[in-house]
Amino acid sequence: MQQNRKAASRFNLSDMVTGFIGGVLWSTIAWLAYFFHFTNLSAADFVLRSWIWMPWADSWAGELIGILLVGILSVLVAFLYYVFLKKSQGIIPSILFGVALWVLVQIVLAPIIYGVESAFQADRNANITTMCLYLLYAVFIGYSVSYEYQQSQAYQDKT
Amino acid sequence: MAEKEKNPIPSKIDEVNDFMKERVGLGVSFDVGHRKLIILKKQIEIYYTTGLADAEIVQRVISKLISINDDEKNTNKIPEIIENRLVHMQVNRKQNIDDCVDAFLSGLIVVFIDGCDFAFVVDTRSYPGRQPMEPDTEKVIRGPRDGYTENIIINTALTRRRIRDERLRLEMMQVGERSKSDICIAYIEDVADPNLVKLIKEELKEIEIDGIPMADKSVEEFLVKQGNKPFPLVRYTERPDISAIHLYEGHVIIIVDTSPSVIITPTTYFHHLQHAEEYRESPAPGSFIRWIRLIGIFVSLYLLPFWYLVTVHPELLPATIDFIGPNKGGGHIPLFLQILLADLGIEFLRLAAIHTPTPLSTAMGLIAAVLIGEIAINVGLFTPEVILYVAISAVGSFVTPSFELSVSNKITRIIFLFATAIFGVPGFVISITLMMLILVGTKSLNTPYMWPFIPFNLKGLIQVIYRTPTPLSKIRPGITNPQDKARMPNS
C-alpha cells in the first residue's frame, strides 16, 4: 500500500503528455502569431535556428521541428512545475510561473541565444503577445499538473 | 427551509371546517372544494382542488366510500374500514393539517374523519399538460421524438424508462415558501460522486424564496452563483436520452416541476458543444459533424475581431493573403461602426423572430434579407465584406448547440471587437488571453470549467474532438469523479 501511494504520486506519463501537448499547442499558436506578424520570432528561432544553420531550418520543416522541440522541452517545464509547485491551488501560481518563465527566456536567456532579440529590443506588440502566450502556456501546464496531482491525492485519500 | 410550527389535526370535524374557511379560503376561492359524507353515522369530509384532481377517480373513491354504509356494520373500526375502502394505490396518513392543506392544494384529496386526529391523503393528481413531444431546440434526424414536459412525474417516468437500475435515485424535495415547487434530484447511487450530491442538496435546501415560477432557471441561479460571467455554468436538456446518458456518466440531474428542461450538473464548457445528433450518427460522420460545429463556434468567436484587426492593420497580413480587406476604401462610415451596426441588425432579427408568429416571420425575413442587406450596400452604408464576415459569425453562433453559449459567445465577441478597435494588436491579444484565463479560473460546482482542455486530460479531450464509438468508450469521463469508473463491467 505504501509503495502504491509513492508510485501514484510521482511525475507520471500523463504529466509528460500534458507538457508535450502544451508545448506543441502553444508554440503552434506562437507560430500563427509569427505568421501574422504579431511577433518577429517563432519558436524555431529560439530552439533550432540559433544552433543549426542549414537551409532547411529556415523552411516550414524548421518550424515543424522547432514546435516538436518546444514540446520536448515542455516536458522539462512540466517536471519543474511538478517538483516545485504541484501543491499550489488554482491558476494564480501558474500565471506567476508564466511571468517568471517569460522573464527567464525573453530577458535573461534571449541575449545569450544567437540571433534572438531580447524583450528590450522587441516592439510593444511582440512583447505583449509573447507575454500572453507564456501565460496561457504556463497555465495550461501548471494548472493541469497541479490539478492532476490533487485529483490523485484525493483519490488515494478515499481508498 | 426553516421548520415551521405545524398544527395538529383537530379531532372535531367542525374545527377542520373552520380552519379551512379561515386559512385556505374555503367558500371564497372557487377552486377549493369539499364534500360532506355520512359513513356509519360518522361525519366525513373530503377536500379537493377543482382542476387538479382527476374527477373520475374522485367519484370512484366517493362511491366506494358510500357503499360502506351498505356493506359494513362495525362502527368501532371506522378509520380502518375507510382506509381499506379507499380504492387507490397511493394512500397516506397525515398527522398535521398543514401537510393536508399542501396535499390537497397540489391535487390530492384529503379525507377527514370526525373524531380522528389524522387524515387520509389519496393521490388523485391529474395536471393539465401536454404529451411528450420533440423539443424544438434539440431536434435529431433519427432518434426518439419524446421530450420532457412541464410535469415532473412524466419527466421522472421518462428518465426511469431509460434507467431501470435499482440504484437510480429520484429524490424529491420542495422549494419555495408559497409555491412549494417540487424539485427532483436524480442520480445513480453507486456512480455519482456523493460529495456532489450532498453539495447540491445543501444548496437547494438553502434556497429561501416565495416561489420559483421561472423554475429551473431560478434554481440554477441559486445553485451556481454565476455573478456577471456570461458563460452558461449548467447545461439544460429537454431530451430524456441525453439526461440518461449523463446519469450513466455520473452526473446529477435536477428536474424542476413546471419546466420541460432539466439541469445537468456538473457542466464544463465542452458539454455545451455536444449535440445528440452526433451520437445518432456513426462515429466518423458524428466526428465530422462535431468538427464542423467546433469550427463554426471558433469562427463565431474570433473571425470578426481578427478580420477587423488585419483590415485596420494591413501590415500584419502575410503577402500570400493580402487581398483580404475592403478594396474600395472601406465605405463612408468607420469599419468598426459598420460591424457593430450589422451585428446589431442581426440581433434585432433574432430577438424579433422569437416572438413573431410564423406567418409574419417569413415577411420579416424577406424585409431583413433583401431590403436591409441589399440596399444598405447600394446606399453605401456597408461594404459587402462587412456583411460577409458578420453573416459568417452569425451563422457560426447559430451552429452552437447550446443557446446559452451562443449568446454568451456573442457578448465575448463584442468585447474582443471593442478591445481590438481601441487598442489594436495588444487589445486583441490581451482580451483573448484574459477571457481564456477567466474561463479557466471559473468553477461550476467545484468542477473546472475548461476541463478537459485546461486542466488537460488527454482521454477527455479525445472524447471531445472525436466522437468515440460506444463499444470503445469503456470508462466514464473523470470529470464527475465517478465512484465506479468502468462503463463496461467485464472489459
From TrEMBL, chain A:
Record-annotated membrane-spanning stretches: 20-39, 59-83, 95-114, 126-145
Keywords: Membrane, Transmembrane, Transmembrane helix
InterPro entries in the cross-refs: YqhR (IPR024563)
Record Pfam families: YqhR (PF11085)
Record-given protein name: Conserved membrane protein YqhR
The species this protein was found in: Terribacillus aidingensis
Source lineage: Bacteria, Bacillati, Bacillota, Bacilli, Bacillales
TrEMBL record, chain B:
Record-level GO BP terms: spore germination
GO cellular component labels: plasma membrane
Transmembrane residue ranges: 291-310, 330-349, 361-381, 387-407, 414-437, 449-466
Source organism of the structure: Terribacillus aidingensis
Annotated InterPro entries: Spore_Ger (IPR004995), UPF0353/GerABKA_families (IPR050768)
Stated family: Belongs to the GerABKA family.
Cell location: Cell membrane; Membrane
UniProt KW keywords: Membrane, Transmembrane, Transmembrane helix
Native organism taxonomy: Bacteria, Bacillati, Bacillota, Bacilli, Bacillales
Domain of life of the source: Bacteria
Protein name as annotated: Stage V sporulation protein AF
Membrane topology (UniProt): Multi-pass membrane protein
